[in-house]
Amino acid sequence: PPPFPCCPFAPSPANRSCIAHSSLEMSVPSCSANPWLVMLLLLGLLVVPALGGSPSNPSTSVRGNGFGTASVERLRGSAGTWFNVLHVTDVHGWIYGHRHGFPADYGDFLSLVQHLRAQAEAANEEFVLVDSGDLIEGTGLSDATPIHGEDIFKVVQHIPFSVMTIGNHDLGHATTTDLMMKTFIPAMGDAYITSNSLWAASKEPMGKRYSVLQTSLGHTILALGFVYNFKQAAETTIVETVEHSLRQDWFDEAMAVPADMIVVAAHIDPCSPPELRDIYSAIRVRHPHKPLLLLVGHRHQLHFDKYDDNCFVVESGRFFNNIGYMRFQIAGNAMHNFGLQWVNTTLDNFYRLTATTSQSFLTKEGQALKDMIAGFVEELHLKDVLGCSQTTYDPSLPLSDDASFYRLLVDVIAPRVLFEECKARQHDFYITNTGFLRYPLFEGVVTRDDVFTINPFNDPLVVFESVPGAALRRIVSKAASSDAAVAAMAFRRAFEFRAESLPPFVHTLDPIHDGDVYNVIMAAYDSFTIGHIYDDLFPETGPHHAVPFSKKLTTTELFIQYVEQFMPCGSEAL
Questions:
Q1: Are 307 and 262 in contact (CB under 8 A)?
Q2: 436/439 Cα distance (integer angstroms)
Q3: Nearest 5°: CA angle at 395, between 393 and 475?
Q4: DSSP single-letter state for residue 424
Q5: What is the C-alpha to C-alpha distance for residues 103 and 140, in angstroms, rounded to an integer?
Q6: Residues 6+ apart with CB under 8 A from 42
Q7: End-to-end Cα spacing for the chain
Q8: How far is CA 141 from the centre of its chain?
Q9: What three-state secondary structure class fits 17?
């Protein structure tokens, strides 16, 4: 598809202008031009379907409406079985609706799935439900628990997924993966597929290497599940490179399965080679023409691509803002009438898709799941009000903007909460990577949950003590550069959250004086990168090590303390 801007889809002041752009600018964000889709553009075959309209009406169209809905369909005959495929990815704990955005929760989602599955069965059609990883890290419900994901997994296991895979955030903590091993992965059974993610102790896959699904209408689906070549997994796990995994005997066994279709759930950026292309190529060596869906995640975008006549790539956004809804026929070992629609997670859209109303939509099981979620929210005090913000601060804005969240962080929050009074020629200094803030701070009431959506990691704060000003000047210059190695270290946990308008690191805005000495405060996560830069620039005084910060705060507690102390409700000024 044409390289249209990949705009964020969560409502916020920063993307209102993006949302207001013409539909074609938002239709199918991608990383490279596709001649097939470009030809449709040139032929004028782009028509705009209504938001939330059903993908069941075939048309020769590619279209988006600026707020997340798109469809791509091609007419190739009418024979064969219809398949309905729903896709979500990068939910990051957003299973209970957005206070500042789309309101549907996983109780509504379960109801949607039950209605659509029943509709498919009544029409003698197939139904498949896929998740491409990163269930956790992003909300209070996900991360205010002692173990990240503890409550999320209890809820998600009630959703009848056909295929799931693991994401890098799901792999980040040993306590989380141990919990998954004991409860969540067994509960999901054959649906949970981790083709290249293993337990370190046994070298066995965390879930299944692959699964063979027998559908209600007698079709066979071969399912695979990959994560990208992630290098920071918890010590109890191993992520094999995709290339290495594809050379093993299990893959040959999987390729010998006489399947009608192959579905790959992949937590892999479709625009960053080589992993996804390696998977596609390895499958096509064995099955040159078999229907193939590559349902991807990690990049937090809406993305569509067509690799060949029987292979489509779909990414369905982030934070449960969107659901990818695909509809197509399979006949004669080929896919026909492929249709894609991204559905924003509003209740009105769910009613339209299911031909229900507010009175008839919610199922008994959906209501029970809503009640479970509400109980967890109450137990964690996520609705407790900490303070009120007079302005909306957006992390995607440059430091020069008064509404920049990073400017507020380095120029106001860190000095007020962390810094001591300046001693003679010795100063406190703060630095952070620009993937640190994951969500805007919205104007109005600020709850405990809002703080966790901003920064869920709870990383301890550390400090490099007594750094000479001349050395600090060189360190921050290197950290703020466009050096690829610096960026790779800085965003090793979450490259998808980097603010593109900013350098890899931002820091205290006060001028650095060469003759002064600085205590450089940061998250422990950032000390890895800053320590490497420090050692590389000044090997004669290294190795340099950060020590625990004296106030013993975590990154999440930093925001809680600031909001409680400096953002009182009713205040005229912050």
A1: no
A2: 9
A3: 125
A4: T
A5: 16
A6: none
A7: 46
A8: 16
A9: helix
What is the pTM for the complete model shown?
0.85
DSSP state at residue 180: I
Side-chain half-sphere exposure of 458, counting CA atoms within 13 A = 13
Distance, CA of 85 to CA of 523 (rounded, Å): 41
Q: Which residues contact 389 (CB under 8 A, 6 or more apart)?
A: 441, 442, 443, 444, 446, 563, 567, 574
- DSSP line for 456-518: ---PBEEEEEEEEHHHHHHHHHHHTS--HHHHHHHTTTTGGG--TTS-SEEE--SPPPTTSEE
Give backbone dihedrals phi and psi of 182, rounded to 5 degrees, phi first. -80, -30
Tokens of 35: 């001649």
267: which 2 tokens?
Answer: 């937590």
Q: Taking Cα atoms as reference points, which of 61, 49, 71, 84 lies closest to residue 329?
A: 84
What's 183's DSSP letter? I
CA distance 203 to 435: 32
Order of strands across the sheet with 126-131? 163-164, 126-131, 81-88, 322-331, 334-344
Question: Average pLDDT, whole number, for the chain?
Answer: 85
414-439 confidence digits (pLDDT tens): 999 999 876 667 899 999 999 889 99
Q: Which residues pair with 198 in a beta bridge?
A: 205, 238
Q: CA 395, CA 403: separation in Å to the nearest integer?
A: 9
Over the stretch 511-569, which tens digit does the pLDDT of each residue have? 999 999 999 999 999 999 999 999 999 999 989 999 999 888 999 999 999 999 999 99
Distance CA 251, CA 323 (A): 29
The token duo for 396 is 């995607």
pLDDT, tens digit, for every residue of 118-142?
999 999 999 999 999 999 999 999 9
Give CA separation, 99 vs 12, 135, 179, 214, 570, in Å: 12, 19, 29, 39, 21
| Residue 302 burial (CB count, 10 A) | 27
